[in-house]
Amino acid sequence: MLLIDDDVDDRMIFGEILKELVPDIIYNEAINGEDALTKLESNLIPDIIFLDLNMPRVDGKQFLAEIQKMDHLKHIPIIIYSTSSHESDRRETQELGAAYFLTKPNSLKELSNILTGILHQQPL
């Protein structure tokens, strides 16, 4: 699994909850879309990607556009993981190939429940 998010606290919380749910999961992080593209070019092929939208350098929408150009990566499900709840962001990211749009929850319990649901649907 790969989380792309520029917020260090969000990455830490996400990682801790994920490791609690699946202790043996291989979990990677990137601080923005540019960092993620570099990691993906170096043979990191995750089963699923969680992607923030608002990041410096290469943002979430730019990342989506780039990954769709890569035949060996465009099959990876990408879940938008953002503070945005704007319908225009949902629509645009869906058009760019995102599998799902998740607004960052307000509580750790809610994030844990969401990740549990996603992990039960996604073989890792």
UniProtKB/TrEMBL annotation:
Signal peptide region: none
Limits of the Response regulatory domain: 1-119
Keyword flag Nucleus: no
Keyword Phosphoprotein appears in the UniProt entry: yes
In-chain residues carrying the UniProt-annotated modification 4-aspartylphosphate: 52
InterPro entries per record: CheY-like_superfamily, Sig_transdc_resp-reg_receiver, TCS_response_regulator
Keywords: Phosphoprotein
Pfam family, one: Response_reg
Name of the protein in its database record: Response regulator
Lineage: Bacteria, Pseudomonadati, Bacteroidota, Chitinophagia, Chitinophagales
